[in-house]
Specification:
This protein is α+β, with helices and mostly antiparallel strands. The protein has five helices and nine strands. Strands 1, 2, 3, 4, 5, 6, 7, 8 and 9 form a nine-stranded antiparallel sheet that branches. Helix 2 crosses helix 5.
C-alpha cells in the first residue's frame, strides 16, 4: 500500500513539473512578443512612455488576449525579477550613473515592456478583449516562428554581375519564391521551396563602347534556407540547386546557388508576419552543349511574409 501511494505521489510530481515547464515556455513567449513590439517601435521613436504605449497597445493586446490569466501574471512577475536582477529602476540607476542613459538602456527597455504588458493586462481583465478571442490552451506567441509550420512567400528585385566565356556582364531583374518549413523552439527555422526569376543582362560590356540590347535570362531554383532568428532580425544561409537559361545560348545549364541574407520582420498583420530581407548570392552553372560555364553574383531586396500555422496553440 505504501509503495502504491508513493507511486501516485511520483506521478503527480512528474505532471506538476511538466505543467510548470509548459507555463514557463508560455511566459517567455508572451514576454518575447511584447519585447518584439517595443523594440520595433523603439527603432522609429520612443519619447514619452504613456504616448508610445498608446501607439503599440493594440499589437500588445493581440498577444495578451490569447494568453491565460496565469501566464500574464507570471510574465509580469518574471519582468519584476529581471528588473530587480539588473539593479532596480532605470531612473534611480540613471541618477547613480551620472545620468548616462546608455548605462541603463537594458533595464529601461524591460520597464517599457512591463508597462506595456501591464496596460494590456488591465484592459484584458476589464474584458477589453474581443468576445470572439479566447485564450489558447498553450500560448506560443503571436510574433514568433517558434514551433510553427511556415508557409512563406517573397518577391523582389536583384542586380546581377556575371562572367561567361571571359566576358563580363551586368544587369538586373526580379524573382519570386514560395517557401514551406518549420520553426523550432530554439530560434531556428528550416525552409524549402521553389523560386523563379528572370532579368536582362548586358553580356559583352566594354568600357567606352556603346551598350547592346540586354540578353534575357531565366533562373529556376529550389531554395533550401536555414534561418537563425534574433529578437527583431534574422540571419539566413541558403544553398539551392538551380537551372539557368540564357537567351543567346538557348540551353538549360544546371548549377548551384548559395546566398546569405539579413532579414527584418515586422509585427503581425492579420495572419501574416511580414519581413524584408537584404541578400547577396553567388551562383555557378556548368557549361552545356557549347554554352560556357557561368559565374554570377546577385544581390537585392526581397519583401515577403509568412503564414504561421500553430501546431498546439489553437
Amino acid at each position: 500500500m505504501f509503495l502504491r501511494h508513493l507511486y501516485f505521489v511520483f506521478v503527480f510530481l512528474c505532471f506538476s513539473a511538466q505543467a510548470f515547464a509548459a507555463s514557463e515556455q508560455e511566459t517567455k513567449a508572451l514576454v518575447r512578443d511584447v519585447t518584439i513590439v517595443v523594440r520595433l517601435h523603439e527603432q522609429t521613436s520612443w519619447y514619452a512612455d504613456a504616448l508610445e504605449i498608446d501607439e503599440i497597445i493594440e499589437d500588445v493586446l493581440r498577444s495578451t488576449c490569447l494568453a491565460r490569466d496565469e501566464v500574464r501574471t507570471q510574465a509580469l512577475l518574471w519582468l519584476d525579477e529581471e528588473i530587480g536582477r539588473l539593479g532596480g529602476g532605470a531612473k534611480e540607476q540613471w541618477l547613480e550613473k551620472n545620468k548616462d542613459l546608455g548605462e541603463v538602456k537594458d533595464v529601461l527597455r524591460l520597464e517599457r515592456v512591463r508597462m506595456s504588458l501591464k496596460r494590456a493586462n488591465d484592459i484584458a481583465e476589464e474584458k477589453g478583449c474581443p468576445f470572439w478571442v479566447e485564450p489558447r490552451r498553450r500560448f506560443l506567441g503571436e510574433q514568433s516562428y517558434a514551433e510553427r509550420l511556415i508557409l512563406g512567400f517573397e518577391a523582389g528585385g536583384r542586380f546581377m554581375l556575371g562572367w561567361q566565356n571571359k566576358s563580363f556582364g551586368f544587369g538586373g531583374g526580379g524573382a519570386s519564391r514560395v517557401l514551406f518549413g518549420y520553426g523550432t523552439a530554439k530560434k531556428f527555422s528550416f525552409l524549402g521551396g521553389f523560386e523563379f526569376g528572370g532579368g536582362g543582362r548586358f553580356s559583352d560590356f566594354q568600357f567606352g563602347q556603346r551598350l547592346e540590347m540586354p540578353t534575357a535570362l531565366f533562373i529556376v531554383a529550389l531554395p533550401m534556407v536555414f534561418r537563425w532568428h534574433h529578437v527583431v532580425s534574422f540571419n539566413e544561409i541558403e544553398l539551392s540547386p538551380a537551372m539557368y537559361l540564357n537567351q543567346l545560348d538557348d540551353v538549360f545549364q544546371p548549377g548551384i546557388q548559395s546566398a546569405i541574407g539579413l532579414g527584418f520582420p515586422r509585427t503581425r498583420l492579420a495572419d501574416i508576419l511580414p519581413h524584408v530581407t537584404f541578400w547577396l548570392s553567388y551562383s555557378y552553372f556548368t557549361g552545356q552543349e557549347g554554352a560556357p560555364a557561368v559565374h554570377q553574383v546577385c544581390g537585392g531586396l526581397r519583401a515577403g511574409g509568412s503564414y504561421l500555422i500553430g501546431l498546439e496553440d489553437d
